UniProtKB/TrEMBL annotation:
Record protein name field: Coenzyme A biosynthesis bifunctional protein CoaBC
Region (Phosphopantothenoylcysteine decarboxylase): 1-182
Domain Flavoprotein: 1-161
Species whose genome carries this gene: Flavimobilis rhizosphaerae
Keywords associated with the record: Decarboxylase, Flavoprotein, FMN, Ligase, Lyase, Magnesium, Metal-binding, Multifunctional enzyme
Keyword Coiled coil: no
Job description of the protein: Catalyzes two steps in the biosynthesis of coenzyme A. In the first step cysteine is conjugated to 4'-phosphopantothenate to form 4-phosphopantothenoylcysteine, in the latter compound is decarboxylated to form 4'-phosphopantotheine.
Involved pathway(s): Cofactor biosynthesis; coenzyme A biosynthesis; CoA from (R)-pantothenate: step 3/5; Cofactor biosynthesis; coenzyme A biosynthesis; CoA from (R)-pantothenate: step 2/5
Superkingdom as given in the UniProt entry: Bacteria
EC number from the UniProt entry: 4.1.1.36, 6.3.2.5
Binding residues annotated for CTP, in chain numbering: D271, K281, P299, D300, I301, L302, F319, K337, K341
Family (UniProt): In the C-terminal section; belongs to the PPC synthetase family. In the N-terminal section; belongs to the HFCD (homo-oligomeric flavin containing Cys decarboxylase) superfamily.
Length: 397
């Protein structure tokens, strides 16, 4: 998708660098159009380095391409962050005195403005009238967040967080093909305690599960996230249940699955846990033998959910983080797991050498319950998430 990101001249412009990263990591092509004032806060080099495209505010750049008309016509989405009081006024009055305002006049795609300004400016009758007029014309104008502003000031006028802006903007152009569905997604790595300070865990950050939840929310689903250990923020608008161990997750997923149309087990659940948890910290003794930790198997949450089917017509999706060995390739093991687990879809990825953990990218093969390949995806974890949901819709159809 082709996105124009306009950047107004406010201190919150620095947050738009993260917004740009979120949009590009989701697989979109983004052209930044800063205002002249915004370049006092964030330089042109930053926008060009992050987007890989030219960033200019001048109408007379690229005159041969008629950029001031072409950019708006070709855009699939226009997002302005931050939209200052001045920029809102210029957009409402139809000004065309720089590249951003001319682009706003020529855009026929959805347009979202994310305001940021001091509270008095936001509450001023002129600003309120400008916002009302823009909304009447079909422009989406977010309400600013409430919080710390420049200096010691605090109140309404803070720029919404980048993930909130990105979700609201993409929702304008995403097909709402998951609307009416209740979805539960598990994410992160479970923790199995050994004693009060030590545990068995894994390298999962929860990023792929979070992107699956975000994508479902953007596409209209009601989403519940069951989160074990994660090191990424949960998107706004998603209900979260926090868990720790595999048995905690099993109980939470069993409860959530009773009303869910789609269940996605993306969490990295520990296969084993210590048979006995020591009440006090295990002490190290000089020259002594290290303690032996005996393991027992954890419940197989995916297989249980797939075989029990908490409600009719429920779709179950599992993830298989595999490595190849002497017994077979990654896909060999994933196909055997697909047939054994009984899920409708199994998303297989190669984690040899710790790859994908903590990365923003992933490469997966999506299998059906017989182990046959139905789709593959390679790219950002956000793009992979949407590919998984595409496969879910095909399976449900």
């Amino acid at each position: 998708m082709r996105i124009i990101l306009g950047v107004g001249g406010g201190i919150a412009a620095y947050k738009s660098a993260l917004l740009l990263r979120l949009l590009t990591e989701a697989g979109h092509s983004v052209r930044v159009i800063p205002t002249a004032a915004s370049l006092e806060f964030v330089g042109r080099a930053t926008w060009e380095a992050l987007s890989g495209e030219k960033a200019t505010h001048e109408i007379f750049d690229d005159v041969d391409e008629v950029a001031h008309v072409r950019l708006g016509r070709e855009a699939d989405l226009v997002v302005v962050s931050p939209a200052t009081a001045d920029l809102l006024a210029r957009a409402a009055s139809g000004r065309a005195d720089d590249l951003l305002t001319t682009t706003l006049l020529t855009a026929t795609c959805p347009v979202l403005l994310a305001p940021a300004m001091h509270t008095e400016m936001w509450h001023h009758p002129a600003t309120r009238a400008n916002v009302a007029l823009l909304r009447e014309r079909g422009v989406t104008v977010l309400d600013p967040a409430v919080g710390r502003l420049t200096g010691a000031d605090s109140g309404p006028g803070r720029l919404p967080e980048p993930d909130v802006i990105a979700a609201a903007a993409l929702a304008l152009v995403r097909p709402q093909d998951l609307a009416g569905l209740e979805v539960v997604v598990s994410a992160g790595g479970t923790i199995e305690p050994i004693d009060p300070v030590r545990f068995l865990g894994n390298s999962s950050t929860g990023r792929q599960g979070i992107e699956l939840a975000r994508a479902a929310h953007e596409r209209g689903a009601r989403v519940r996230l069951v989160a074990a250990s994660i090191d990424v923020d949960v998107p706004a608008g998603i209900e979260v249940t926090r868990v720790s161990s595999a048995r905690d997750m099993h109980a939470a997923m069993d409860t959530a699955a009773r009303t869910a149309d789609v269940v996605v087990m993306a969490a990295a659940v520990a296969d084993f846990r210590p048979k006995n948890v020591v009440r006090d910290k295990i002490k190290k003794t000089d020259g002594g033998e290290p303690p032996v930790v005996r393991l027992v198997e954890n419940p197989d949450i995916l297989a249980d959910l797939a075989h029990q089917r908490r409600r009719p017509g429920q779709t179950i999706v599992g993830f298989a983080a595999e490595t190849g060995d002497a017994e077979g390739t990654v896909l060999d093991h994933a196909r055997a797991k697909a047939r054994r687990k009984g899920a409708d879809l199994l998303v297989a990825n190669d984690v040899s050498g710790g790859r994908t953990f903590g990365s923003s990218d992933n490469s997966v093969t999506i299998l059906d319950r017989d182990g046959s390949t139905v789709a593959s995806a390679d790219g950002s974890k956000a793009a992979v998430a949407h590919a998984v949901w595409d496969a879910v819709l095909r399976a449900r159809a």
